[in-house]
Design a protein that fits this description.
The protein has about 200 residues and is of the alpha/beta class. About 10% of the residues have low confidence. Helix 1 links the parallel strand 1 and strand 2.
Length: about 200
Amino acid sequence: MKLAPPAAGENRVVFNGRLDHRGLALRRPGWLLSRQSRTSIAASADDYAQMLVRFRQDVNRAPAQSGCNSGGINDIAGNTGPMTLEQTEDNLASMGELAAAHHIRVVICSVTPAFDFPWRPGMTPASKVVALNAWIKAYAAEHGHVYVDYHTAMKDSRDGLPAALSHDGVHPLPAGYAVMKPLVEAGIEQALKSRE
């Protein structure tokens, strides 16, 4: 289904990414600032390659002023097969370029912490998450995108997601969303102000 272009005065934000952003955009009614409308394009176990495949269609289906992208952990987990950090970075960069070409202000969120994956134990993802986040932060700065740092605010001493914020060390609980909410709201506000 294709959405109509945003109405005058409407600030539409499209959320692209893994299930966390579906949780933020859809499972937390009213979490966004009241002057924004939201559309979530998220799916469980999405990685950046899957997002990129449908990205052009998604951009055309839900035209927006700002796009908020969250992902990366499923790439690191290898949910659709082995993937290098460089492949993940290339896919994210391609989405950033497509969004910019459509005059969408880009908000890129860091990968949330993970010390281990319960469905694929022993992969030691924490250091890969840190490395990918460093690349994302540098990429966002270089291209004028907004970077939202969930990782620093949510990590424990092992660079994992603590039990208070997650039931499985990967997916946030309501307490985790409560940490994410003000961070992404501030990032979206920053992106929308840069359009003015």
